[in-house]
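Section: Multi-chain targets

For targets with more than one molecule, the full set of components is provided together so that the structure can be written out for the assembly as a whole rather than chain by chain. Components appear in the order listed by the source. The example entry contains three components.
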Amino acid sequence: MSEITYKPGKEPHPRETRRIFKNIDREGYDPSIKCFMKDGGYQTLKKCIKMEPADITNEVKKSGLRGRGGAGFPTGVKWTFIPKGNTKPVYLVCNCDESEPGTFKDRFIVHQDPHQLIEGMIIACYAVQAHYAVIYMREEFPEGARIMQKALQEAEEKNFLGKNILGSGFDLKIVLHRGAGAYICGEETGLINSIEGVRPYPRIKPPFFPAAIGLYGCPTIVNNVESLCQVRQVMMMGGEAYAAEGAQRSPGTRIIGVSGDVKRPGVYEIISGSITYGELLYDICGGPRIGRKFKAIIPGGASAKVMRCDEILKDRNPDGTVREMTIFDVPMDLDSIAKFGSMSGSGGVIVMDDTRSMPKVLNNLNRFFAWESCGQCSPCREGNPWMYKLSTRICEGKGSPEDVDLLKSVADNICGRTVCAFGEACSWPTQAFTTKFREEFLALTKPINALKPHSAEAAEARKFLTRED
Amino acid sequence: MSETTNAIDAIAAPVSSPGEKFFPKFEVTPELVAKAQELVALYPEGKEQSAVLPIIHHVQEEFGYVCPEAMPWIAEMCKCTAIHVAGIVTFYPGIHRKCPGKFHFRVCRTIACALSGGEELLPYICSKMGVDPAEMTDEEPMVVSPDGLWSLEAVECLANCGFGPNVMVNDTLHSQVTRGKIDEIMAACKKELAAERKEAAAAKKEAAAARREARAAAAADVTEPEAEEAPAEAPATKKAAAKKPAAKKTATKKK
Amino acid sequence: MSNNPTILPKDAAAAEGKVNVQINGKWYRFPKGTRIADACNSVGAHVPCFCYHPKLSIAGSCRMCLVEQGMPPRLAPGATPTYDEAGYQPIQWMPRAVIACANTVAENMGIRTEGKLTSEARRGVLEFLLTNHPLDCPICDQAGECKLQEYTSDYGSGTHRFTEDKTKKGKNISIGPRVNLDQERCVLCRRCVRFMKEIAGQDVLGVVGRGTHNAIACYPGTQLDSNYSMNVVDICPVGAMTSKDFRFKMRVWFLKSTPTIDVNCGTGTNINIWTRENQVYRITPRQNDEVNSCWMPDSHRLNYKYINAPERILTPMVKTDHGAPQRPSTWDATLNMVVEQLHSCAPTETAIICSARMTNEELYMVRALARQLGVTKLEIVPRKGENDGLLVSDDRNPNTNGAKLILGKNGSGLAAIRRGIKNNSVRFLIALGEDVTEEAGIEAEDLEALDYILAMSHSENATTKAADVVLPSVTFAEKYGTMINVAGRIQRLNKAIEPQGEARPDWDILRQLTELLGCDCPRVIACPSPMIILEEMAQEFEPMKGLTWGNIGNGGIVIMDTGVTIPLIEREKAKK
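Its structure, encoded as tokens over all components, is:
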């Protein structure tokens, strides 16, 4: 067990700490239960199933584990939100609808090490006393779905699932439910609606906090894949030991996905807060491609606000003095980046170098959000296509300087007025890009464009108003 | 939406696609109903509607896409109304209302893949497939080649952002795809098709032989009425048809 | 102050099951569980809503009702709350607006419906809703009562900044036999979807597409054909759902609405009649949570065409010779003639068939007429149908309970009259407001055989055609009166238009006739209006005791226990 070898070229970076990703790209490892159990799999479950459920919850609370889906809500605290004296069935849903662009960690867990997720889930289900759980997997993982289905079957054969698990009297059924390619299903209430077989519109909160009124109107805990794997880690290590490691307010390891213009993009598991963005991008990822310079970083999935690499960030030291730093000096935990107006979210870092046109990057993001808007609430439904049309027009050189302000203003009108956090988050890239890279946007505009028609109807109407020129 | 169909009729208007010849035509068989009931049984009692997506997935796997006739049937299986099924079918981009080609290419064009050149692959794949890139719009991002062999869809994030550009062919993900790799993939697809055709021809031969034998047996047994022959024949052909997508699945899995 | 010895407002409110809420700086008290939107609207702080409808589940999706909200600051452990002189805690305002439809009031909550945060949110949401809206108000039926139009004028910015191509969707689609859909005008509030599912119980509408292409639709081959389909037109805040019947007929601002009740069944659905220049253009339901909630069946709603139809009888018609055709006459001449004719009819050989479609006041006058003539063969025509489990009662007469109370009749004596006509023991028939060949079951040849028929009716029918004298009366839209519904509720009919032609209100015809026949009872002949008749009745009939036109009000009063309930209302109450 001590000697783990990885596939050639897939070796972890020395600064990584592989826990969740211990078996990813490991030589001789396959997703079967045999492999997993040989490596100590399901031992934690055997230990946990003899504990009091409340003790597991307490242990997770003690660990300070925070959700890895993006919002960073403390997992153990979430579990305690199930109403006291609840008589309805409790459900647990694993959010495996990894759909935030730039995030690609769940893919590896599902495809290469599904049993650690299942074990984590069983432990979590036991802790909240859920007898029915759903893995909501995105449609784009058809292979993953087959692997997971097989893994569930294997676990059931070994009585880790099903009736009277390991003689404990605890029953659990886990159902694999596949999505169908909608970003909004990553929103926990949208996901619940998707499982219920209705259009996956996010629900209004209040009153529909899943822990109180979730799947089928019953208390439901929705946890991210990585979070559930971390639950297993917590129970393996003990809450206190887990809490002692990494950033104080977000302990444990974090899986960071790096994509874009770096030499070695990929997924890396690091101790939370142990390295900075600079160390990640230069040391682990090898820095920018030859002859290039980093220009901008989206630090936590596509909806996180973009950071300029040459921006001077001002932070306050504990003694009150002001410390100047750049994005490269910010530690990689859940909270540090939030001080500078962005978020660490789901751990997807997207990097852009000096060859990139920022309006074009924004336009790509806007297309994504316009395409993925579920259309339930007015600001997101109408605002996103508008932003996309505006940014497209600016990129095509048909925008006027006022359009840049309009673009920002449309984003401001969406922000804070939507049903769900996703609807709101879609306005953040526009807000950040148009503010931080305003000069790039303006460079593409021409004042004369303000006088030109922008729609087919306006062009048609213009024919009657002006002479042919 | 054509001029003659209104927006409502368009929900269940058949969209013809050359890809259809590679998939069996939607038909409610006892096996299909049994599978649907099995999927419904996965969910708590009285929550039949939860099975809408799983049944849609199954239909899509078997028949390539969700045709208009399938929607009321799915509604019936899930004890909801057809408009709800239509609401779901039209919502998810992963559900096809038009039959894709035998080999369905999904090219990611979201930020990370776009940064690594995903969008530039689209025109190349189009030219290789013989489809018009102009047909791909934001509203209808899927195009099928005239021979029905290929289809191309521009999709959003496939969740493999570090290794773009990503292209999914049927169920298999290919990462760090280049033009050269596209050529390789397409060549492999063609090879797979040829092998499958050979297999199908052999199966057909076998079935014909079996039929001949049965007919001979029937002729020998004069007491057996001739009308019995037809239904006896049907399951055999159906099985052959059902084999096709299954064969596809295993073939792609191997890679 | 915190050590104020007097009772704090929060405790005072809690004792009544209420909470204190500050709205735009003033404190109010509301029952616990009141929605913020309802609370604000009730005190005149208007909250605009598209998707919120008090009778439907909460969608919370239009985001129009965003308001600024605040609560007392969360206390540090061990800290005690502070109170101002009036005994309220300070309010900490939240940086973002909340929706007023889904959230309920809480103790010491603060709401601002005016101010920068709210007005900017409203302006922003309206701008979004208008981006893909076709802005075709000049040809839209909803113009004038369109929420999008009203809110844009109240809270909108006045200019628009959207200059791109709009999303194209379906227009002018027939979505059912009585309703048309325009998907581009739609703001996707889903009120119609929720209504059809939750109230009408016919889950035919849904949303298809996604994002900006979202649109309301029904599945091809199915239709919005429920008998309650037109309610979606009423609740549609914009011109997406329009009534085929009312389409392009009249601008709503030209119409006058009169609150009255429906007379197509015993439920007595509360309605508004929309009229212009003595013509009825449409009928819409009027909210009454004890009778019809906010809804009405299409069958009842559309049954108004007869009011302005050519079949209306506009003058008295008389036949001077038994075989001759009817000819128009004047009221004075006709009434005098009728009096003479009735004097020669033997009371024992005369029958009166009147109607449970008549108002209480008319039935009172029927009784006076019968007494004056000494006729004892008097009956109403019962009308039974199927109860639809929602609003349509199995009793298709609107005032069966009135007839029971005033005449003591329920239709059981009708067979005897029918027999009498057959065996010639009844030779004279007075048909008041009924076509006796229909539900009363008197055959046409039997009518022919009668010696004399006096008919009072608003429209031509087989009975009026056979009658010797026809007195033109009016429809429910042209008169005042009261009726008692199946649940024992007395409700008012209001006059929406003037009587057509020479027609006169039924009660007036009957009163005059009775007077001319020699009645000198002041309680009959000195009644100049239905309101006075009501007061007369209030003295005579126990259940009506103390009733006046005024105290019945627009909602009616329950005056008797019938044991009958209205299914839809019961369901609504059970839901609460």
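Chain C has a mean pLDDT of 94.
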